[in-house]
Amino acid sequence: MIDTTTAPYGILALRVTTGALFLFHGLVKLLVFTPAGTAGYFESIGLPGALGYLTMLAEIAGGLALILGVRTRLVSAALVPVLLGAAWFGHGGSGFNWSNAGGGWEYPVMWAVVQGVLAVLGDGAYALLPGDKSAARARFA
Fold first, then answer.
1. Which of 80, 105, 115, 140 would staple 87 via disulfide (CB 3.0–4.6 Å)?
2. Residue 70 pairs with which residues in a beta bridge?
3. This model's pTM is above 0.85
């Protein structure tokens, strides 16, 4: 049974935590690796360099949207392919364990599942621009 009093706050914690992690990862690509370096890395693993720029944008914009609670379902669903791409192309050859050299695929797949769950759960408490308010009211009424 869902505790309708506390569930929206649990969703809020999940939304803000994952948003902060996305924002951090995007800012590392922007400020540490630089956009050109990020694009170069994507090219080095056989992907178009432009995908590096798009990934950086998705992580920064998606992270901010999640933190603020802007269209959580849509944003979370859009981030699932980014994470699965990271698992497949960036970490797939490194095995399962995240502690393996090059990082394994378990961590990005776990985050893809978390984003899928957020896409199902919705905004939670304190969303700036919630998705479907009527569905949220019915779910937590």
1. 105
2. 129
3. yes
End-to-end CA distance of the chain: 13
3-state secondary structure of 128: coil
Position 139 scores a pLDDT of 47
What does the alpha-carbon distance between residue 62 and residue 18 come to, in Å, rounded to a whole number?
A: 10
Q: What is the pLDDT of residues 93-102, one digit of tens each?
A: 777 777 777 7
What confidence score (pLDDT) does residue 92 get? 77
Q: Where are the domains of the chain?
A: 7-131
Judging by beta carbons within 10 Å of its beta carbon (0-12, 13-18, 19+), is residue 52 exposed, middle or buried?
buried
How far out from the chain centre does Cα 27 lie? 14
**CB-based contact 93:85 (threshold 8 Å):** no
